[in-house]
Amino acid sequence: MANNRTEIADIGGEFGLIDRIASQFNSQLSTTVKGIGDDSAVFDLGNEFGLLTTDMLIEGIHFDLTFHPLAHLGYKAVAVNVSDIAAMNGIPQQVVVSLGLSNRFSVEAVDELYRGIKAACDDYKVDLVGGDTTASRSGLVVSVSVFGKVAKEKIAYRSTARPNDILCVTGDLGGAYIGLQILNREKQVFVADPHMQPDFEGKEYVLQRQLKPIARMDVVYELEEAGVVPTSMIDVSDGLSSELHHICRQSGTGAVVFEDTIPVDEHTVLAATELNLGPITAAANGGEDYELLFTIRQEDHPKLKNNPNITFIGYMTGDADKILLRTKNGNVIPMRAQGWEHLSS
Ligand code: ADP
Ligand code: MG
What does pLDDT average to in each consecutive run of 10 residues of the chain (345 residues)? Predict the structure, then answer.
């Protein structure tokens, strides 16, 4: 038999596959401003831009119901999509939610899931306007799409950073990855001896970061108040390093990051140390923090320098794709995009 089967891993995994799909589709409509390749698609609505993004969460891949409360999961499913609208500097408006349910799930379980979805709709001021419900043989599937809007002159793409722009990140990094490691550790303890109680003392912060991430709409509004439009932006779903590679590759720039400025919460540092993991490695390569990584013009720095939600971690350079980390002891090393999956191996 002819061997005409190609493994997805052989074309570069998820990103290679997306590139392959993208190469087969050109926009046919003049209203399609940006197709595949950014955090949201962008449409011309006349006076402003429309934004559309979708993300799917699958049981056993993205969450484990032995430790993920359903209400938190519902909240997270909406928040991660709102985060992609935030990453375009946009405002989310409407959301649709599609569910795949196996007969393991009761009405009460679905109520719990929707309690979280409702809390997120209230927090982010979006309306749930539809969805789809179907049976599933492989556990729970939650797929969410969010529609948003942004003024044309305020949109922030991944591809428009420029040399000498200042690199900024919101909040702190690495917590969600460390939270996941704690959950996995306690699950193994529990599987080995179901009488053992999980030891989550002092881990509330990192657990919250993993189980109930927050989309940084607050910072989108603060940027607007400060009169700053980022020159580029992306949300941190796969880790700082991976996201910075996306911005640099699409903008044709390089970047320098100062290791000692990367924001890591003290709870994350403590828990990482307990797990024998480097806090900076977790921050650079751990995923799911859903913070915003963005660049600004140097002249905008004074407008943001007192904002406690924003840290300045480096600058962009003209050396295309050269992404460097200046370490605490002054060495300069390439910052590789490992992605969080590689951390555990
Ligand atoms: P994010 O992490 O911001 O959600 P992704 O890495 O999932 O972004 O996706 C990158 C880009 O690829 C986005 O523009 C997304 O819409 C697009 N994309 C992902 N999967 C597919 C697919 N199966 N078909 C078409 N476009 C896709
Ligand atoms: Mg994104």
Answer: 84 92 95 97 98 96 93 98 98 98 95 98 98 95 98 98 98 98 91 83 94 97 98 97 97 98 98 95 95 98 98 98 93 81 45
Nearest CA owner, ligand 1 atom 26 = 36
Question: From the CA of 198, how far away is ligand 2's center (Å)?
Answer: 32
Instruction: State if residue 131 touches ligand 1 by the CB under 6 angstroms criterion.
Output: no
Handedness of CA 209, 212, 215, 221 (dihedral sign): negative
The pTM score is 0.95
Alpha-carbon distance values, 195 to 181, 182, 190 (Å) = 21, 18, 7
Rounded Cα–Cα distance for residues 249 and 322 (Å): 9
- DSSP class of 196: P
Instruction: Tell me the one-letter amino acid at 275.
Output: L
Question: 161 with 246: CB under 8 angstroms?
Answer: no
Q: How far is the CA of 335 from the centre of ligand 2 (A)?
A: 20
